[in-house]
Design a protein that fits this description.
Elements (H helix, E strand, L loop, with lengths): L24 E3 L11 H14 L1 H4 E3 L4 H18 L4 E3 L3 E4 L4 E4 L7 H6 L5 E6 L6 E6 L8 H4 L4 H4 L6 H4 L1 H10 L5 E10 L24 H4 L1 E11 L6 E11 H4 L3 H13 L2 H6 L6 H12 L2
Antiparallel strand pairs: 1-8, 2-7, 3-4, 4-5, 6-7, 6-10, 8-9, 9-10
């Protein structure tokens, strides 16, 4: 059996003036889920979180039942079709060759969306139409980047992103219009990046830290900080009015990406261009000066 490929390295930050945009680009439907070399370790972690912290990483409103079921059907059909070296199906049973698990899709041992989340590295969020815009109706969220599922369940997208600086005035309307017009069979992706001082995948808290941390210096910032990139996708749940929002986390030590002077310089420029409100929201202030000092040294010719 072929081993999954190494995780992809995404570097979505840009030099130049900061701007807030959806950043959506079309992607082939075959790219809905990524299977990479972190699969087995991440699935083991997902199993532990679903067993030990279930209410923190899974929730579903009753009305989301049909969309959750349709999402499992989508995942169970997609994996053997696009990753046949690791997944096989005889119609209603799905075999996962990477973990040795076999699942009865007709009779899942848990909520259908939870089972879907036990098959892919992506976190899965189901958005149902609502009077104030799409509502987060269900999710399996094992690898959050500093948000809590319990605080967002049942809320419309605009309210969910209320704490994000500039979202309400610049993106709320375009995001809701895009979701309303998203056609079945279409997949779009976008990337969101942050710098974190903790490599843990499960990070439900930590936004808005502002106090300077003297433990970070220009010498050690590269080994103590990580670039965390979320690859996010949006697509219609087949046969339902809901939207499937997926989140795949990629993490790389700053030391590893700053080995190329051009990348170090680009990241430093992108950080300097962030509005102060955004830097505060992303909790960059405790180590921003140290990080920029490290990147500037690496970017120097």
């Amino acid at each position: 059996m072929d081993e999954p490929p190494p995780p992809r390295r995404y570097l979505p930050f840009e030099a130049g003036p900061w701007r807030m945009a959806m950043g959506l680009v079309a992607a082939p439907i075959a790219a809905l889920f990524e299977i990479d070399g972190d699969y087995e370790a991440q699935m083991a972690l997902r199993r532990r979180l679903l067993a030990g912290r279930h209410t923190e990483v899974f929730a579903a409103l009753e009305e989301a039942g049909p969309a959750c079921r349709a999402t499992l059907e989508l995942v169970a059909a997609h994996l053997p079709a696009h990753h046949p070296q690791w997944f096989a199906s005889d119609g209603r049973h799905l075999s996962n060759r990477l973990t040795g698990e076999d699942w009865d899709i007709d009779n899942p041992p848990c909520d259908p969306l939870e089972l879907a989340g036990r098959l892919v590295q992506e976190d899965l969020c189901v958005l149902e139409p609502g009077p104030a815009g799409p509502v987060l109706a269900a999710a399996v969220l094992c690898f959050p980047t500093r948000w809590r599922l319990a605080e967002k369940l049942g809320r419309p997208v605009g309210a969910i992103h209320g704490p994000v600086p500039f979202f309400a005035e610049r993106l709320a309307g375009p995001v809701e219009r895009f979701m309303a017009l998203l056609k079945p069979g279409r997949l779009v992706e976008r990337f969101n990046w942050s710098i974190l001082d903790d490599p843990a995948l499960f990070q439900p808290g930590g936004h808005g830290r502002t106090e300077h941390d003297p433990a970070f210096t220009a010498r050690n910032a590269g080994e103590r900080l990580w670039l965390r990139v979320e690859r996010q996708t949006l697509s219609r749940v087949p046969g339902a009015s809901a939207i499937l929002f997926t989140i795949k986390v990629h993490q790389t030590p700053i030391e590893a990406i700053a080995g190329e002077p051009a990348i170090a310089g680009r990241l430093a420029e992108a950080i300097r261009a962030l509005p102060e409100e955004t830097a505060r929201y992303k909790s960059l202030l405790p180590f921003r000066a140290a990080l920029l000092g490290f990147l500037d040294r690496r970017a120097a010719p």
